Amino acid sequence: MKILVAGGAGYIGSHTVKALLGEGFDVVIFDDFSTGKRDFVTGGAVIEGDLMDAAAVRKAFRTHDIGAVLHFASLIQVEESFRDPQRYYRHNLGTAMNLLEAMFEAGVRRFIFSSSAAVYGIPQRQPITEDHPVNPYNPYGVTKSMVERILQDYDRAYGLRFVSLRYFNAAGADPDGILGEMHDPETHLIPNILLSLLGKKPVLGIFGTDFPTPDGTAVRDYIHVTDLAAAHVLALRSLLGDKPSEFINLGTNVGISVLEVIRAAERVTGKPVPYKILPRREGDVPVLLASREKAERVLGWTPRLSDIETILRTAWAWHRKSV
Ligand SMILES: NC(=O)c1ccc[n+]([C@@H]2O[C@H](COP(=O)([O-])OP(=O)(O)OC[C@H]3O[C@@H](n4cnc5c(N)ncnc54)[C@H](O)[C@@H]3O)[C@@H](O)[C@H]2O)c1
How far from the centroid of its chain's Cα atoms is residue 117's Cα? Predict the structure, then answer.
């Protein structure tokens, strides 16, 4: 039995494929390499194709004996989702629907979904538990919550079993130095700090220093991508053990401000990080913190590499070598 990893050549997908291979799973990557990298394929079979192509997706299930699906392949730029929501609804819903339909046709009923803290919108309380109301603010987050709704309906109607993993801020790089984070455009803080230190990006911008936080910059919950990958393996084992469907946050419940990340980057790299202060971006909230109680209780997951120094050390090692 093989595990189909849709978007397995991307940042989080490739780290998860490496973790699955390390645990002895047989993996098939389905990716169109639109944002994924060929260098990020560390093993398994590869189907190069577009998940929007329903026939190609069905063919993958006829060619391989698939037992479960992990779906990472979505469009992920929040600002772009405001500018071009049609593209986001079409892609993020279409890819999930095509996978689910092909799965059912092949009798496969286990699905792990890359969801996001964006489903919660503006938080009413911290840390955020999974029973916090779902009220996404941006179209990207709406696509994630819509897929979550589809999953619930398909669970009731067709016996789908899913784990929807709501990631907070994924960061860091594979400790073996093989994989790392490289989006284009890059909107995430840590790679942008490192790219500016490497002279690949202009001076770093900080969006807002007037938040109601101790130093005025936004506080986020950073989770090491290898810890995220490990959680996917645990979620898969849970589904293979016939456990029920779940929504689970993946974060650490440790908040780090933008300025604290910059100071930590200076310690790790030994270089000063020049920055300029810009206005707040619309929709950015002061603090986002995950409760990790459910991930620990249901999956037996604990973060091991998610302290900010390890995140930065692994990311810096990869960036210095690969960018
Ligand atoms: N990076 C984060 O901090 C973060 C936070 C919350 C949620 N997520 C979610 O995690 C998932 C993975 O994010 P990432 O940062 O690894 O993104 P990524 O862009 O690096 O990876 C996406 C992968 O999907 C592939 N893909 C996209 N469209 C495809 C299509 N139509 N057909 C086939 N393959 C396709 C890309 O080539 C790429 O390999 C996304 O669903 C994202 O919404 C990420």
Answer: 10
Architecture of domain 2-171+222-250: 3-Layer(aba) Sandwich (3.40)
Cβ neighbours of 287 (radius 10 Å): 17
pTM of the complete model: 0.98
Fold entry, domain 189-221+253-322 = UDP-galactose 4-epimerase; domain 1 (3.90.25)
Q: Which residue owns the Cα nearest ligand 1 atom 15?
A: 11
- CA 116 to CA 114: how far, in whole Å? 7
The ligand 1 atom at the shortest distance from the C-alpha of residue 144 is 43
Which of 18, 27, 35 has most ligand 1 atoms within 8 Å of CB, for mutation? 35
Q: Per-residue pLDDT for the chain (323 aa), expressed as one digit of tens each?
A: 999 999 999 999 999 999 999 999 999 999 999 999 999 999 999 999 999 999 999 999 999 999 999 999 999 999 999 999 999 999 999 999 999 999 999 999 999 999 999 999 999 999 999 999 999 999 999 999 999 999 999 999 999 999 999 999 999 999 999 999 999 999 999 999 999 999 999 899 999 999 999 999 999 999 999 999 999 999 999 999 999 999 999 999 999 999 999 999 999 999 999 999 999 988 899 999 999 999 999 999 999 999 999 999 999 999 999 98
Around ligand 1, the residues with Cβ closer than 6 Å are 7, 9-13, 31-36, 50-52, 72-74, 76, 95, 114, 116, 167, 169-170, 183
d(CA 260, CA 247): 30
* Alpha-carbon gap, residue 229 to 171, rounded angstroms: 12
